Amino acid sequence: MMNQPLSIRFLLACLLLSLGRLAGAQPPGSPPVVSPQVNTDNTVTFRLLAPAAKDVKLNAQFEKAPVAMTKDARGVWSVTTGPVKPDMYPYSFTVDGISVADPKNSSIFPNEGFQNSLVEITGSPPLVHTIQNVPHGTVSYQFYTSPELGQRPVVVYTPPGYETDTKTTYPVLYLLHGTTDLEETWTKVGRANIILDNLISQGKAKPMVIVMPYGRAFPVISKSSGSLRNWDNLQAFKKDFLGNLMPFVEKNYRVRKDKDSRAIAGFSGGGGETLYLGLNNPDLFSWVCGFAPGMLKEEFERNNATAFANPALTNQRLKLFWIGVGKEDMLYPVINDYLKVLDDKKIKHETLISDGGHTWMNCKLYLSTIAQKLFR
Amino acid sequence: MMNQPLSIRFLLACLLLSLGRLAGAQPPGSPPVVSPQVNTDNTVTFRLLAPAAKDVKLNAQFEKAPVAMTKDARGVWSVTTGPVKPDMYPYSFTVDGISVADPKNSSIFPNEGFQNSLVEITGSPPLVHTIQNVPHGTVSYQFYTSPELGQRPVVVYTPPGYETDTKTTYPVLYLLHGTTDLEETWTKVGRANIILDNLISQGKAKPMVIVMPYGRAFPVISKSSGSLRNWDNLQAFKKDFLGNLMPFVEKNYRVRKDKDSRAIAGFSGGGGETLYLGLNNPDLFSWVCGFAPGMLKEEFERNNATAFANPALTNQRLKLFWIGVGKEDMLYPVINDYLKVLDDKKIKHETLISDGGHTWMNCKLYLSTIAQKLFR
After folding, report:
1. Residue A228 pLDDT > 80, yes or no?
2. Are residues A108 and A234 in the same domain?
3. Which has the minimum average pLDDT: A286-290, A357-361, B139-143, B148-152?
4. What is the CATH number of the domain that holds A52?
5. Which chain B residue shows the shortest CA-CA distance from A181?
6. pLDDT tens digits, residue range B104-132?
7. A298-329: per-residue pLDDT in tens?
8. Do B198 and B338 fall into the same domain?
9. pLDDT above 50: residue A227
10. Would the CB atoms of B19 and A358 count as touching at under 8 Å?
11. A127/chain B closest Cα distance in angstroms
12. How far is A375 from chain B (nearest CA, A)?
């Protein structure tokens, strides 16, 4: 609301310094550092103001290795890469050995273990996860209560029309994030809401509610002691999921409560949770989808006990058992072993063996694939 | 879902490296770096793994100046500060001149201009912004459409009971963030939803809908050319606010549409927008609240034209005209000048001159103060 170029620049610099105490803030009067800048040829220019740094590299998930950046006379490091295949990618900078998110980019990867920024290269025609002018669903942040774990965050997607079609009930997809991710990662990095908005508007997916809880009982490894991890965490999460989360959802949302109207899917550590919860609770879920699901070979029998005990009944109970994984994913070998066990036991399943690795680019592909299969 | 300590540690390290390419990730087997750690005496320990760094400082908004951190043999820099007065504070580290958020803390300050982390020191009894086991409202992320500006994000708080009391209509508070903030800043840093949950549960605030749009027409200064700034931005934002946002809210939410049921409030740059929109649209808003509102003395007349033209009518129209500012705020002198002009013109107003500066700690105080006055 101020139009004096000099005074406003000075005042804004004061505000930034006061609010953020931003080391490396540009002095008043210097041109702004813009990063990332997606160019018309789909190359991307990244910039970082770091006059004192000796070495700055770009780590982008569309590059196979870190990319060196070069410094100009002002101390702005930059590099232009690509053309980049349209998608949304995580990236960070390494500044003298320290990993930092891009301070000029407010689009952040929600995570407990690292901090990355996100860059979107839009395509033409728009990709399935591109925000478009179609009817949008609502993404709601809620809390539910666990007697043991306290106030638990969950993000819920309701499809377009949910608020007005108040007689309609919907099928529900429980969608779990990976280890170190957060309840926001599926919307902010996986664009689950946008993918469903677009597929629903094209008639390619059934309107559904998507429930994205914080997918661990206890905070990630960096915050918890050894005894709170892994099997203990999975048991406590199962208890919370079945005892608190599902009742909260079924009380507060107009979701259908039959097993054919319930799906569960998840990525990485959340994919492991998905298979464990889905395959061992056949009365609850008819649709079970693992996206590069985390697993260990020595735990196949334990984690798949119900399904392995009666493959014929498992096949009868499940409408879809789906596994997606990238050929470059470090979990590909163990998942491949798992798929062979499923074949041996004649447990029906569909697979999508994609290009790429253990990435959220693949997560978006997998979600947009299974969303078109669910509840049909 | 894995309980082999060595293999899972290795696999998780691989996952972290694959997902985040996290420079400085701790090697498998080393104890986790926990940061921040709030101790029982309300001191706080901050830690950062940065073996190659030469100088690391803590910048915390409860400290007057940066605090030196010291390095241990593993390369973990740390410092313990306080005891700290219970509140939620932004902080960052400066590593060899580069400002970084805390990579072990997933609680991030949403902002276009800098990246800070948040640390909460809870009090006893709990503070007004502490998440408690009370009925919670819903925080919804929505898009509305601007013909000129495209798909626009807005965050909407609906109070507990909104979904079930479907005959009830609610008063509405439009709540604007500061320059460089985002539509999420009022919930994630200002805890607007939690403050209202707590005040409503205690009967101290009326149930209300709170609308928190992205508070600019154009992205913040760092992303826009000179011509898109300031007055042009304010005019374009006003057009979007009145022409797109308010109609979207009134169509999609059960809000009352009389001026006595509409309030507007905002912080810093959003406080300037608040006064401009609120005081020049007296048929729309009966409640106008500025939190350290951004203003320039040479713009007093222009930005307050309607109110200054007829003080008596202004007093008649407004049920509350409220200004809060901290004595250490760099805007305190100009706001003080503005308050003298209001006195001279006999325009009625309430003030809260608090301790502290241009901070979100004060924003929480101001919101919790005015929330108890609105719609009474």
Report:
1. no
2. no
3. B148-152
4. 2.60.40.10
5. B106
6. 899 999 998 888 999 999 989 999 999 99
7. 999 999 999 999 999 999 999 999 999 999 99
8. yes
9. no
10. yes
11. 16
12. 25
- Both B191 and B318 in a single domain? yes
Chain B touched by A111 (CB under 8 Å) = yes
- Taking contacts as CB-CB distances below 8 angstroms, the residues of chain B near A116 are 20
B356 Cβ neighbours under 8 A, 6+ residues apart:
B326, B327, B328, B329, B362
In a domain, A27, yes or no: no
Are A156 and A289 found together in one domain? yes
B24: in domain: no
Measured from the Cβ of residue B104, the count of other Cβ atoms closer than 10 Å reads: 23
Domain that holds residue B204: 138-370
Per the structure, the count of domains in chain A is 2
Q: Are residues B78 and B218 in the same domain?
A: no
Residue B212 sits in a domain whose CATH number is: 3.40.50.1820
What is the nearest CA distance from B358 to chain A, expressed in angstroms? 7
Measure B232 CA to nearest chain A CA, in Å.
8
Residue B116 sits in the same domain as residue B152: no
Query: Which phi and psi (to 5°) does residue A222 adopt?
Result: -65, -20
Cβ-based contacts of B20 with chain A (< 8 Å): 90, 92, 99, 109, 111, 113-116
Note the ipTM here.
0.89
pLDDT digits (tens, 9 = 90+) for A21-51: 333 344 445 678 899 999 999 999 999 999 9
pLDDT score at B262: 98
Q: Which of A284, A346, A344 is nearest to A311 (CA)?
A: A346
Size of interface A-B (CB pairs under 8 A): 289
CB contact under 8 A, B221 and A131: no
- On the CB side of A108, how many CA atoms lie within 13 Å of its CA? 31
> Does residue A126 lie in a domain region?
no
Interface of B with A in 200-219 (CB under 8 A): none
Q: Which of A247, A232, A318 is nearest to A281 (CA)?
A: A318
Any B CB within 8 A of A153 CB: no
* Closest residue to A100, CB basis, from B100, B111, B223: B100
Give B214-247 pLDDT, tens digit per residue: 999 887 654 554 444 578 889 999 999 999 999 9
**Domain annotation covers residue A7:** no
B8 touches chain A (CB under 8 A): yes
